[in-house]
Specification:
Two copies of one chain form a homodimer.
Chain A lengths: L7 H11 L16 H19 L3 H6 L3 E3 L2 E3 L2 H13 L17 H14 L1 H20 L2 H12 L3 E6 L15 E4 L5 E11 L8 E8 L12 E6 L1 E3 L5 E4 L2 E7 L9 E6 L5 E6 L5 H7 L1 H29 L22 H33 L3 H37 L10 H8 L9 H12 L2 H21 L6 H26 L3 H4 L3 H31 L4 H30 L4 H4 L6
Parallel strand pairs in A: 3-6
Antiparallel strand pairs in A: 1-2, 4-5, 5-11, 5-12, 6-7, 7-12, 8-9, 10-11
Amino acid sequence: MAQKIINPQDLAFQLYELHEVEKTLAYDRYADHSRDTLQAALDLALKVAAEEFAPHARLVDEEEPRFENGRVTMRPEVGKALDVLKETGLMAASQDYERGGMQLPAAVAQMCVGLLKGANVGTQGYAGLTIAAANLIMVQGSEEQQKRYAEPMMAGRFFGTMCLTEPHSGSSLGDLRTRAEPQPDGSYRLFGNKIFISAGDHELSENIIHMVLARLPDAPPGVRGISLFLVPKKLVNEDGSLGERNDVALAGLIHKMGYRGTTSTMLNFGEKDGAVGYLVGEPNNGLAAMFHMMNEARIGVGLGSVMLGYTGYLHALEYARERRQGRPVGDKNPESPQVPLIQHADIRRMLLAQKVYVEGGLALCLEGSMLVDQKKHGPTDTDRELAAGLLDLLTPLIKSWPSRYCLEANSLAIQVHGGYGYTREYPVEQFYRDNRLNPIHEGTHGIQGMDLLGRKVAMAGGRFYLELMNRIETTIGEARHYERLVDSANRLQQTAKAMADATGAINRIKASGDVEKALANATLYLDAFGHVVVGWLWLRQAMKALDGLAGSGGQTAEFYEGKLRACEFFARYELPSVVTTADLLKSVDTTALDMADEQF
Amino acid sequence: MAQKIINPQDLAFQLYELHEVEKTLAYDRYADHSRDTLQAALDLALKVAAEEFAPHARLVDEEEPRFENGRVTMRPEVGKALDVLKETGLMAASQDYERGGMQLPAAVAQMCVGLLKGANVGTQGYAGLTIAAANLIMVQGSEEQQKRYAEPMMAGRFFGTMCLTEPHSGSSLGDLRTRAEPQPDGSYRLFGNKIFISAGDHELSENIIHMVLARLPDAPPGVRGISLFLVPKKLVNEDGSLGERNDVALAGLIHKMGYRGTTSTMLNFGEKDGAVGYLVGEPNNGLAAMFHMMNEARIGVGLGSVMLGYTGYLHALEYARERRQGRPVGDKNPESPQVPLIQHADIRRMLLAQKVYVEGGLALCLEGSMLVDQKKHGPTDTDRELAAGLLDLLTPLIKSWPSRYCLEANSLAIQVHGGYGYTREYPVEQFYRDNRLNPIHEGTHGIQGMDLLGRKVAMAGGRFYLELMNRIETTIGEARHYERLVDSANRLQQTAKAMADATGAINRIKASGDVEKALANATLYLDAFGHVVVGWLWLRQAMKALDGLAGSGGQTAEFYEGKLRACEFFARYELPSVVTTADLLKSVDTTALDMADEQF
């Protein structure tokens, strides 16, 4: 693990043994692929991550992009790394062959980006946003928009952004004010201010394509009156050549605690005559259009959290193995040699906690990626519908659980390093700062809780929630056939039962009409539900590990034993608190809701 | 609360109603004081904190001290603020009148420093370390050392440091190698390297007095062979005038994630002929001498964590009241005005969590401060002995509980601010970075757990542990007389009972000789025990609040009602997880202990 980005055995185990990504090769779309071609793409991404992205991760933190003389300047290493990435074709990893893509399964395509995130989340931001914006155009845009804008994006010639947030309306998108005025030629002129626009300006690409939410003049108020527009930094002529500069101005850069390599910008649209934009999809359907891609974007956030946690874990593990400090409990001889940190129980506990968070988080994200493919390419309508529903249900968890617990992993990685971990001479403090963004962007932790409990659990009459609970129950039943897993399976069952009871109690309050009360602790529900799902994935990992030990897998016996112990740790140290939270949720407590402003 | 450092009502409530600091005025030492003089000192500290310290807190983070041409340079505001502080006499707040001190009770003296920490922890560092080093000389040093070194420190002419850590031995002090060679004149020459020495060099004072742990030539190995030395940066002549530069060289500055205003240095002692040092106290008794002051230093760390959490909470509270965002659950009218953030249940939950952490943490630190005075000035030997034992027991909790939970409060303060909280345009991200040091320095979280469970709980045959548990039980009994507190009291009793059971089970394993197993989860024990003690302090606050509502107190009805709800929140949202952890501890689980290196 010289690169300290991922444990290659774990990646292979998760993709090929746990999630059986090779099964997706049965879909026509992936018929040309084999495990070798999938692995080749991952190896390539890991090589680029380790050789081109990781080496300047600290540099772009120390020397963040600057706004000087109307231009954004940044370290040259960023452009060089992105140029190498463009060359690999990985920016179109999931796209069609005919568009210059690789047609890789979602789990592999997302993992390729994930490896870049673990290596250097700042530089990766430019590529990640471009991939997301191109995907959006490919799903929502016209054939002509796809050719003129998305294809150069997939090739890395143009980069992209997502322009949602405005200064006066963060999470409350329905309140955005940017307006779009129709022009006789079918285009629009946009006027408004956007904030927190990542990668909003730079000189890393020939052009920047902004995907902008705005309102038409006759739009209804709120979220039903939002449309999606494509606004290029430089206009693009019919032949693909670049025309004049559009009326999009960089108003300033925002300086962040972490994630500093990716510029966060304030953009003014229409300071002069209005920024030329083109409607994408139907009028007043912009939020739905944007959210069509949101599941994948949110898996991306979750996976980014995981990978920051994962690299921190591997750094802490190496440090704990190499650094000698103290003696075993009971060794009173001050002249005996100091032992490696990893020999101390508390260090091992902190490493094991990191392991269950990051490997559990990775399993969760890849579960989502597998559903992305099943949703698109599953053999029957029912398969696809079921996958789509489960993906919708799991998305808030995939986005949120890692952004909380893999951030905690980053804190533990600092703690393992002691005083050194707090210094900027070691990388773990940067991972912690970088990862702190993830519970905020792409829908805050609180928003995800409302989404899960307020919408997803109940959608389709609770069908997908029940399906997930059934799958968990099935796994528990299977795990009980393995003697070693009976205790973990029982603990998971107790936890799932407690959450089901809590869900029932909350649903009864909701049905009674007191929605505010029902949703008052939605964030706690989100965290607890996430633990149940990750506990389920740990039990599945443990079963696969036992199968592997019995001869069916490709990893070492130590690796499999580590998975078993990690499952046991999660069941014993993490799951019991969920029962406690579930009891609180079941009581539909309103202590916080009832607290008045003036009582603080 | 324009200063956003502390809620003045809460400070008054905690000092005068909860902890009844006026009772210490019965001690001869404090006979000259009255509530007015105590409050005058606090008001002065708050004024200096708000006017001189807070305004440049961000500046010293952005422009941290630099090492240039052999000198440390830093922002001039630091020296200016410290000069004002010196003028106030607050650096000798707890010292004798005859030494130029104010003879303030410990709770008030420590609180004065705490206010500076909340305002600007970086600049405060120089003063805080000086006060600690001066205290150490006053307790351990000779009359002549007190006059020549400590008095100028208390006046602010000299500053001080604590030099413990060496590059190869962080937490493992017994392995330190710095050596002290006796000289014919009774002085010593020191040779060795120290790291992470806060305030180790600067030009803020006429001189710097280093308190250095080192070994005599004939010293036994390990912690029993450590002596304490006083090593001035510049030698001090008999008449108090400064002599030549000592052989102490700044080898470099360490760059930290936060707490940047306080330099962290590497110091080389004896690059040439050896650094001239003077033995403080008895030979080979240095660690005991240093630890004599450690209780107060550790209260200082805990209080620093609290105050960083507290200022973050007040910033988040103000933001939540002013920022309008979104609508109440159920309001489907997109044209209704947006409401202040504080009207959302999840925001209130995050504010309430911050409130219970920071106000609970403050109550805990002040409990320790009160014991400091009872230990020194209590009327009988028994009182003093009991106070000393309870203080020893509580110290690891006072140091650790705030450094974990008030850091969590800082994370919640960021979350309340949303994307803005992640930017360096708002102060909350700095509080979060600054506070992340506290679980590391002055004994890591893990070390504190070992101290609590391995030593403190069992000391004197468990006498002080049992005394604390009895006090908690007594409070529970008293609280049950208030109808409103019955539920909270019952929850605390259940929690305390679970911890008592866990303690018993662990003690049995320890008695059987398997100490490593008994201590394997000492950190979890620390966290859980801390919650029991803070739960006790919340119940005591709630009783005082009910008394206040009945007319005996000086605060507003809203304030008291807020305390009651906060107590309920702590009992309902925080205590139940302790029962879960206690169950795990009772099982004396060894999952992490048993994990082998190669299984990670």
